[in-house]
Amino acid sequence: MLIQLLNGVVYGGLLYLLSVGLVLIFGLRQVVNFAHGALFMIGAYIGYSVAAAGSWWGGLVVAVVAMAIAGCVLDATLFRALRKQDHIVTVLVTFGLLLILETLVTVIWGKAYLRYPMPDLLSGTVDIAGSPFPVYRLFVIVVSIVVALSLASWLRFTRIGLYVRAASTDARVTSIQGINVDRLSLIVVGLGTALAGLSGVVAGPLLSLSPTMGNYILIDSFIVVVIGGMGSFGGAFVAALLIGQIHNFGAIYLPWAGTMLPLLLMVGVLIWRPTGLSGART
Amino acid sequence: MTLAIQGIGLTRRFGGFTALDNVDIAIRQGEIRGLIGPNGAGKSTLIDVLSGRARNPGGQVLLNGVDVSRLTPQQRRKRGMARSFQRTNIFPELSVEQQLRIASWAVEDADTDEVMDELDLRALADRPAAEISYGDQRRLDLALALVGRPRVLLLDEPAAGLTMEESLDLARILRDLANRWGVTVLLVEHDMQVVFSICDQITVLHLGRSLSEGSCAEVRANPTVIAAYLGTEA
Amino acid sequence: MTVAAGDVAPRVKTRRGTPLLLVLGVAALVAGFTLPWIAPSKVAMSLMAQSLFDALLATSVGFLVRQNGRVSFGQAAFFGLGGYVFAILVARSLVTPEVALVLALAVPTLVAFLFGLVVARVTGVAHAMLTLAIGQALYEIAFRWRELAKGDDGMSFDLPARLFGLPTRGLQDPAVMVVLAWSILVVALLGLKLFSQSRTGQIAAAIRDNEERARFIGFSTTLPRALVYAIAALIAAIAGTLQATYNGYIAPQMFHWSLSGAALVMAIVGGAKFIVGPAIGAIVLFYIKDLAGQFAEYWPAIVGTVLVVVTLVMPEGIVGLIKRIGGLGQRR
Q: Which of B57, B188, C34, C89 could anchor a disulfide with C100, C-beta 3.0 to 4.6 Å?
């Protein structure tokens, strides 16, 4: 039982890493980033290639840095142009981007499923309440907790963080004295995509790599963002853990319901509270 | 004289903040009532409560003596209560004529020509509302509320952003229509010149409560009103 | 009641528009009978039929964008539902073929209406996710419930010999199907045009434009929106039933979100602001894809690029572009 709970936390943690990036990008740029799952996937593939060349940890670093750069480029080009547009437009454009990136991956790495190795340091298991539990999964949990804590303190205790929080809960906040929105958004979007890359690498050894690996987890991340209330960091955290558990226990006890459970939960939450758990704007 | 619209014990809370605190208001048929008060006094909130925009407010709203508190905005509109908005609230992609025509369908296919003529929109009939000037948009906003000659009209700063000349023009049209069509008007307005020139009675709101009520002269002379509000402008 | 002649002109124009529309429609229907002769081969005819199914599905999702201002990533739900209801009822002989056909159209329409009542108020990403949810939910059911229709493998079925007294053999002949699908598309487009000119259609447009104000001028906003969902679903269901009939085969992919996404792209590329836009977008993209056969591997990237460019540079799509060029010509 405890093991199952922990497995749910592992998936919840991955979802958190992805959805918090969505919240950051939506908060600063009002862009609903459908390409986020593709960035997650590309992060995983880059990490895989570097790991195959010899260094797992190098792969982690390279993937995160590469995705951060990709995010900055996206922000400076596409997202800046989209900032004043309707949400529908941002959805369509990033959906187009998703199609392009998926094809790119197919061309470079092929369609076949690839097995992402685990670092030697983290292979093996530990005993938790009498059952073996893979060290690697503990590592995933630790990574997400560390990210969650650092992000929370960054948002709470720095001036930039304060601004990001304000911008995320109220679209009308457009400027605070002494803050250059374009430069800030470069940092924030870059951070969001870097987290997608991190999440991709960390998830790599748990899932197998394929050009569509980003799709299901992207849908689940959007569900997290919607349930948590668009633009809410706390809401995303709670919703990610919730979906993580539901995903995991659903797979064990209600296998026939499969991937439908998170969707059903979202439908329920939206009927109950149309703006999500945190009640932030839609 | 019969009361066209009456609010009893109207209350509206947002979390711990009370925007409207047990306000009573009663407006006679054909009267133009001014609603004034400093920012945050609860003027827009009062209009929202009367028109049904505010969800689950406290108190009762009577329209011609009938309790409409539980009716939706669309039901209230069909019974003769219309409103305009502080921020221009029109249909940007529809033409002026088309949106007025659509508005008329909700009120038994009322005549739209008369409002177009009264508010001088005829020349703009085929233009999409997004393309006409701000002053024209404000008049269109008012026209949408006036289709079908509503019995009660709630206006939330209809002259906001207009020039002095345009505001006085609008005031004149309002006074004229209220007389001829027998419309009862509740008018929120910051411009005292407009308020004093057309209102029969004035209600002063302050911090969500009704501070004073009376004729223009009475309100102007009331020391509490001067202290709370007018004093700063006079 | 004395009004200057210039003032009534726009109203007269819309009244005169309807007969003109009917003439155009009849002409288009007649033209449809030439399609089998235009196509150089059976294969080409078959492709043509497939492009028309796409055109109907794109019209369906485009209508939702146009009338409700909402994007859907789940319109394939109603496409698949139409096909599945028809195929399953026919294959198991549960009801007469006629009743099966009626149910294949009525069930998705009703489901969409109820869905519309619930989600009418939901906007933005949440709306996109909800539409995705309904499509994926049905996909999962079709995929996993093997007893229903052989799950992942899909299910072949035999058409009933007769439908409404007519022999059904022709329904799997591309020459017949092309004419039938074309005629249905023409009638559907006409119907949508008439709907958008009707009172309900105009009220729905007003609600899309400004929902709050629509309520304050006296309209309930949920019902017209739900009606638009229902009409859009009916068209998707027709497309799904046609495709199932033509192929004699159904598979869970009919529900998949990639199909919904593709239909949405077709609609946007063609120009969702116009009723004919999505159908034109579907047919254009279908044939570009066919021509790009050797680059099939890169097809999603091509579509993605087209989508990005169209959305940013020509938001009114192909039809908007044609109209703009035409407009320039007239002014000169």
A: C89
- How do residues B8-19 score in pLDDT, each as one tens digit? 999 998 877 888
Range of the domain at C176: 26-331
Among B68, B74, B154, the residue to mutate for chain C (most C Cβ within 10 A): B74
Crossing angle between the packed helical segments A135-157 and A181-203, to the nearest 10 degrees: 170
Residue C69 contacts A where some CB pair is shorter than 8 Å: yes
Q: Above 70 in pLDDT, residue C14?
A: no
Task: Give the tokens for residue B44.
Answer: 């827009």
- How many Cβ atoms sit within 10 Å of the Cβ of residue B165? 9
Domains of chain B (ranges, CATH numbers): 3-87+150-233 (3.40.50.300)
Decide if C316 is inside a domain.
yes
CA angle A25, A238, A7 (to 5 degrees): 105
Q: Which residues of chain A have pLDDT under 50?
A: 280-282
C17 located within any domain = no
Flag whether residue B144 sits within 8 Å of chain C, measured between CB atoms: yes
| Structure confidence at residue A169 (pLDDT) | 65
Number of domains in chain C: 1
The reply to whether C11 falls in a domain is no
**pLDDT tens column, C263-287:** 999 999 999 999 999 999 999 998 8
CB-facing half-sphere around the CA of C89: CA atoms within 13 A: 20
Give the domain ranges of chain A: 2-124+131-212
Chains C and B touch (3+ CB pairs under 8 A): yes
CB-nearest to A222 from C119, C129, C137 is: C129
What pTM value is reported for the model?
Answer: 0.86
Residues in C lying within 8 Å of B, measured between beta carbons: 3, 7, 10, 199, 202-203, 205-206, 209-210, 212-220
Contacts for C132 with CB less than 8 Å, ≥ 6 apart: A219, A263, C73, C74, C257, C260
Interface test with C, best of A265, A270, A273 (most C CBs within 10 A): A270
State pLDDT tens for residues B68-127. Answer: 999 999 999 999 999 999 888 999 999 999 999 999 999 988 889 999 999 999 999 999
C160 alpha-carbon distance from chain centroid: 26
